[in-house]
Design a protein that fits this description.
The structure is a homodimer of 245-residue chains.
Chain A lengths: L10 H6 L14 H11 L11 E6 L3 H24 L13 H15 L5 E8 L13 H13 L3 E2 L9 H8 L5 E3 L3 E4 L17 E3 L25 H5 L6
Antiparallel strand pairs in A: 1-2, 2-4, 2-5, 3-5
Chain lengths: 245, 245
């Protein structure tokens, strides 16, 4: 984690060091922190500034605990499936100290402890026209603002899709109207572990100029950038043959 | 615009003052600036860190100019429709100095000049499973990082959906494979005009705790926050009766 005071984290520094945080201390998230990160979330753009977002905040009352339990059950189920399907226990996954094993350990623990995350925020989308890919432009930028603002306040979180596995139950339990889409489930808490540079594929693999596939010479990462592969361990194998769902 | 040097813009300050910038000077956007904002974009999260994004950068070569012309034609067509449909020339829109008139002027000029924006970036999404609302979680957070990083570099831009009006033409012209979704069209340039606090509805309208509709007492904006209504001028009227498409 940066040694600079949190209040001074710069915009670019914040963007480049906001990691997915999946382990939290027991310290509750304060009202002030929640207000600040939700204020930041709602500064995001949306189509025609419609602001078609609502945020369900789940903390420690019985209803919220039950909702978090539902999400936690889905997380465990999905992780078990993924662990097998993506071969987390194969190859280097057999060595306890490999990056793959460590990632598997983090994911296992994350799924098992999701129900006790200090806060889970459900960003909800008020659909106002036919469902399409593009409606995401009016809800997911605000999720990114939320995660960045959490970083600025000394908190951390991660975007998950676990709500999709218990959508009807969450709607019923929380009184969410049918026409509302729960877009994500974002646990937030005080990080156990730290933020730091995130890893991606090299920039040159992502950027084309004027024609698809034409990588410009300027598309290079800053010096010293470390890379990672894309997707889960089984990703490439699956792309080459197995069905994707 | 803040009087602090750009390099020192803080994370929260950047998030809360990144406005949609629709007017640009003629100054070109440098290679270094483009690399920096695309690097920031690719620091965003994506499902299983798949990084299913590609960026088509349109600058000043003949193909890019043609692509920008296509987008500009769509922008003019859509704005004409919107101007009529949302009643921009009705009510206070008849007074040249009203906020509504000024907004209409900005949008008219934006549409007319889009083809000559210094850069247009097309964030593209590599679809790897059935289309759904949730795939946006792996492409629109990176668009927000891109806009925030542009702010940090003294640039500005705005997320638009104009690509949807000329999708087939853009795919053909730029050689974009059929299975790739062009998720947005984001013009970028040196701002004519300035960044500054964005305006939204009051936070209390957006935040619920433990049950839908239950607004917590802590969900308040920082002191001095100024608000705006949601959506275009005709939005409410349309919700109350007119069809939305």
């Amino acid at each position: 984690m940066s040694s600079r005071p949190l209040s001074e984290i710069g915009l670019i520094e914040g963007i480049t060091t906001t990691r997915a945080i999946r382990r939290y201390t027991d310290e509750p998230v304060s009202d002030q922190d929640l207000a600040a990160i939700l204020f930041a979330a709602t500064r995001a753009p949306s189509g025609s500034n419609r602001q078609p977002w609502r945020f369900m905040v789940l903390r420690d009352d019985p209803t919220s605990r039950e909702a978090k339990r539902l999400l936690g059950d889905v997380a465990v189920r999905i992780w078990e499936l993924k662990r097998r399907r993506d071969g987390y226990d194969q190859g280097s996954g057999r060595r306890a100290d490999s990056p793959k094993s460590r990632m598997a350990g983090v994911m296992q623990s994350f799924a098992e402890h999701l129900a006790s995350a200090p806060v889970v925020i459900l960003p909800c989308y008020l659909r106002y026209r036919e469902p399409s890919h593009f409606e995401g432009a009016s809800i997911f930028p605000c999720c990114q603002n939320l995660l960045l603002a959490a970083r600025a306040r000394g908190l951390g979180g991660v975007m998950t899709g676990f709500q999709a596995g218990c959508e009807a139950e969450l709607h019923a339990l929380l009184g969410i109207p049918d026409e509302i889409v729960i877009s994500a489930a974002i646990p937030i808490g005080h990080p156990r572990g730290s933020h730091g540079p995130v890893r991606r594929r090299p920039l040159e693999e992502f950027v084309y100029e004027s024609h698809w596939g034409q990588t410009p010479a300027w598309a290079v990462d800053p010096p010293g950038t470390r890379h990672t592969s894309a997707g889960p361990p089984g990703h490439r194998a699956r792309l080459e043959g197995e069905p994707t769902r």
